[in-house]
Amino acid sequence: MLAMLFAVLGLATVVAIPASAEDVPTLSVVLSQVTPVSPSATDTVTLQGSVTNTSSKPVTNVQVHLWRSSDAVTDGEVLTEVLASDPANPVGRRMLQPENIFNITDVGAQPSQAFPSTKASPKKTFAPGESADFTVRAPVQGANGLGFATPGAYLVGIQVRGIPEDGQNQTLGRARSLVVFAPEASRPHSSVATVALLSSRPSRTGDGVFADDHLAGELTGRLRQLVTLARQPGVTALVDPALVDAVTDMADGYRVTGSTSPTTQGQQAAEDFLTQLGPVVSGGAAYRTLQGGIDVQLAVDSGHPELVELAAATPPTGHLLAKLPLAVVPADLKLGDNARNVLDGIKPALVLAENAASGTAVQRWSDDAESALVVPRTSIHDGGPGPDPTRSAPQLAGRLQATQFVQARPMVSLVSTSAQASAELVDAPWRTRTPLPALVAASGTTERFVASPQPAHREDRSWLDEVKSGRADLTAWGELVAKGNDAERLTQQVLPQALSTSWRGDRAAALRWLVASRSQVGSVLTSNKVNLHVVSKFVTSSSNQEVPVTISNGLPDPVHVRIAFDSENPQRINVADTDVLTVGPGDSETVKVRVSTHANGEVGVQARLTTPTGRAIGTPRNLTITATQAGRVGWIIIIASGVVFLAGTAMRIRQVQRERRGSANVAGTTGPMTRPACDGDDG
Q1: Beta strand pairing call for 190-198 and 236-239
Q2: Alpha-carbon dihedral 198, 199, 203, 207, rounded to 10 degrees
Q3: For residues 602 and 569, what is the distance between their CA atoms, to the nearest angstrom?
Q4: Residue 386 burial by Cβ neighbours in a 10 Å radius (0-12, 13-18, 19+)
Q5: Where do runs of H (alpha helix) occur along 176-251?
Q6: Which residue has the higher pLDDT, 644 or 532?
Q7: Is the pLDDT of residue 92 over 50?
């Protein structure tokens, strides 16, 4: 009946009809509760909410009526029409029993139920800007019931009647929602796959250091709701390894950038979250996502597919997620065909994407039987129907359950927000949840994923240059302190998060986080903690002579460096680069470098420290070398130069050592995120 009615009305709306005063809402209605969303035949449905006079004029005789349509929605096409329908369509029926009505103002001899009202001080008008809460209810069945007869989704809602100034009694506000009537004889009715995505915007910038405290808030809000949902029978969890690392760090104690003292605000919440997450991970229906929720399509389009491979690396032995299969969740659930080769290389167990040419819930990602494609239905969380507002908690739950109830094939719901989790946690006795592994195993699909066309990313090249520079810094740091495994782990942690989908295009925020994450490593490479000491002028008296050069290490780790020389005129004077030298923590090392002279004269030479592969460290030093055959005078100058250099170097080294003893160890020298996440880490 509803399908025919909407078809007729669809033809009628071809002709434009001017809006009448009846169509202009002057009272805004917001639903706060509709309980239960899936009532049984013996239940009473209660609607609660608020009404606000959004007009500029007072209204009298304001009365809230429970409204309902007795037509069952039993298929997806009709549900789509209902969700898009005009608020006055279908007409339905206002219910008139006392429990179905709530008086905002006095109505005739009936006093206001929202405001104090007496004969001496009646509540006659609902003034502009005033708000009032209401409650109405009705049994599902019976002579004065809602009239639900057959299993299906039904429209229920509110109509607010009143008399505006200079007007007549009319409907001035509406709100609608959906409930599902599923008698016990029709249960279980529907099987769905609910997937909880546990991730958060990057905030951890170092061991125990966070850029902000938003994660602490999420652990008592959104993430707590998501992990509660993930613990429900049949729910699948997708967990970001970067989130686990950050929460583990927070549970051990942490501090927020800009604060000199630790904070405990999120510590207990972090411990509680990890306690709840443990059974989810070990329950057989969990996957790990790519590290940091990297934007796969962005990485591919910008020419950095290697970052996807980094993000896919298996966490180290002992990590909470180390044994979980890999699932890929792209930005906005959209992937282009150019990402196929990259993902084929990392062999995920699951790929979730909505932009498949077919809407089949489970498809083959590729010819490789190890990978499956799952197509979530994001519109399931859109709320409605109208009028606005359409995303109240009961509307989200009603839309979700109605869509799941009328489905004709398996459906996947991906849940990532607090509101979505709350809607999924609303009880639906007719619903059976199927874990994704079971859904994939039972599908037997032969349909292969074909992506609908997607526009390529147009990314700021300077931002991508920052990401590349960050990788170079991390690699150089690993060489300098001989912690290649730690450097690789840092690279795996930091760079994918820099391209996280959670930044939502906010490159400024992402850049601030990246700079903070690499700053401690970068400062080691550019500071004077590892320093080179050379005499500013040196005189040689033979074609091959040795010059003393000293390296001081103010770090708590041994460093591995080379000294490289660049002569302005190597045909006249040339200085040989050194082999790799190791200088212990807090120590200094003086070496002699060979100067080769081919002709007399003065030549400028720049000396600089590098990592073993040539990455420059610290500040380069300039010296002037003079080649001469001046005999005794030349030797006197040479010896004097050497004495002055060695004395000055010794004084500088003693000064550095005093500074080290007087202060804490260099912050971050072991890298921004090198705390082992578990037993068995390398390094």
Answers
A1: parallel
A2: 60
A3: 9
A4: middle
A5: 214-219, 222-230, 241-251
A6: 532
A7: yes
Distance CA 543, CA 13 (A): 99
44: buried, middle or exposed (CB in 10 Å: 19+, 13-18, 0-12)?
middle
Q: Which residues pair with 263 in a beta bridge?
A: 254
Q: Where are the beta strands (DSSP E) in 416-484?
A: 431-433
β partners of residue 623: 605
Closest CA to 200 of 232, 227, 233: 227
| ω into 376 cis (within 30 of 0) | no
624: Cβ contacts below 8 Å, ≥ 6 apart: 536, 537, 538, 602, 603, 604, 605
The DSSP string of 331-361 is GGG---GGGHHHHHHH--SEEE-S-BSS--S
Q: Which residue has the higher pLDDT, 69 or 365?
A: 69
Is cis: bond before 316, omega within 30 of 0?
no
- Which helix H or strand E contains 656, and what residues bound it? helix 632-661
pLDDT, tens only, 404-461: 999 878 899 999 999 999 999 999 999 999 999 999 998 877 788 887 776 666 666 6
Rounded CA separation 494/589 (Å)? 34
Degrees, nearest 5: CA angle 333-334-338: 140
Residue appearing with tokens 């020298």: 669
Q: What are phi and psi of 38, to 5 degrees?
A: -120, 80
**Contact in structure between 553 and 584 (CB atoms under 8 Å):** yes
| Cα gap 396→170, rounded to integer Å | 28
Q: What angle do CA 97, 103, 109 make, to 5 degrees?
A: 85
- Coil, helix or strand for 553? strand
Selection from 455, 454, 472 nearest residue 514 by Cα: 472
CA nearest neighbour of 530 among 584, 595, 604: 584
Q: Name residue, tokens 């969990």.
A: 286
Closest CA to 85 of 151, 176, 150, 219: 176
* Cα 621 from Cα 531, distance rounded (Å): 10
User: Which residue is associated with the tokens 């930044």?
Assistant: 503
